[in-house]
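Exercise 4. Each item below gives a protein and its sequence. For each, produce the structure-token representation.

Item: Malto-oligosyltrehalose trehalohydrolase (Amycolatopsis panacis).
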Amino acid sequence: MMFTVWAPTADRVRVRVDGVDHEMTTAEGGWWRTEVTGSDYAFLLGDDERPLPDPRSLRQPHGVHEASRVYDHSEFTWTDHAWTGRQLPGAVIYELHLGTFTGDGTFDAAIERLGHLVDLGVTHVELLPVNSFDGVAGWGYDGVLWGAVHEPYGGPDGLKRFVDACHARGLAVVLDVVYNHLGPSGAYLDRFGPYFAGRTDWGAGLNLDGVGSDEVRRYVLDNALGWLRDFHVDGLRLDAVHALVDKRATHLLEELAVEVEALSTTLGRPLPLIAESDLNDPKLVTSRDGGGYGLDAQWSDDLHHALHVRLTGETTGYYPDFAAPDALAKTLREVFFHAGTWSSFRERTHGRPVDTRVLPGHRFLAYLQDHDQIGNRAAGDRLSATVPAGLLACGAAVVFCSPYTPMLFMGEEWAASTPWQFFASFPDPEMAEAVRTGRRREFSRHGWVAEDVPDPMDPATVARSRLDWSEPGRDGHREMLALYQMLIRLRRDRPELADPRLAGLVVETAPDGSWLVLHRGALRLACNFAPDPATVPLSGTPGAILASWGEPRFAGSSALLPGHSFVLTAPAQEL
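Answer:
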């Protein structure tokens, strides 16, 4: 087979195939190549005798520091030939971490739980990164070989079996990918060429606009297209795109959107690109003919923050601004709370307004919890650890009745008692200690006692973070699961609830934010966030109850709700 590698500054390149070294010859554009028969291979640059894995490796059976292995996509037998994908409008996304979703932490074990997701009613499964990283356990955001599937999860065939099984059950798969940085261990790309430029908060950043950056950009684009084409993945979640430094006239995100759109046309199925961004900039999801990048959706942290403050009362860190009584109503109507307005956390103005006349709500993801907002708390505690069930129900009702694309984090649907903590497993003792002490130092600045911060390198931290699959059948958890199933079913059955139109969206709220009424066509969602009963006004005469948490009573045009409850009503004549 032909072995190739891009190493534009090297004066000599060899490939070690099954233990035997072979000289490679130069080709156009800094590429080297040679034709050799074999399986396990690594590259030697110049006269250095240390073999390095292939930057474009498709399999790393022995970890990120060892030889790569040849992998042939054509050898896998797919059964999803009739699969035509799922549109993002109307979707319900379920975010999961493969390593802690089940006790075994493998693709095959996760396949056994897909029936739960089908019964729940979700449409898309979003996998946290599954590319190769150093160690056995980790979140996946420290990946260094982006095209190789983490071997402890089941490797490339394991991912394909998982995607194939999802498609057989009507579930689309979105894969989380990280193009803004590389992890701290096993990142050898800079040995081969000018891949790196600057640093992010998490590691080395990519050279997207400097000398030699054409091939670096191609490296990213080919990786993205490979997941969608060769692994049959249905979409990508792009991690922290605000950390991509690209000053070219055509931004990498726009270039990616163009190429993925072309691939989508070829494959005949939708391939949405969903960005995570801290910029509060609608340009990401604005069409290219409207001057945007043309991505399909982006996360909306502001709605999460407003809900979090309303449910928990926490006002530290980046939460103080969201304690405003109208914060939740504003984010429901306008997407961003910070939209060219002052951010006390950043000590500057932040964001840009969303033109709700032209941008639909399905382009923004709404969530009560996600992996970051749980895992980046010192103890990795979920809302269910401190928030009463009634308030959790109110928060879920707001998310699923909103005009946005709802997303939930694994276990949220049954108010899981297991935390989801930060963990890693770097084999290098010095790096492991640096991560351990750095994590504790970070949280000590926020008032946490260092000893109370879980050791991220302790296998017990991973064990604590695994879902307990006996919980969905237990009291308290069973009722929450039934509520989530009902809300998702109602969103599917009642078009008003999935209506993405933002212009003219009506949200009423109490002066102190203690209650909220969300108008969805003829439906009304009334939420009482206050601990004591309060009268929540509903315009028009309330009719039949579609869903409720608590025991609402009606008086005239008002609903009397006990504290921490919600009611979703429709005019009687509609039912």
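Check: The chain has three domains: 2-52, 93-179+216-493, 503-571.
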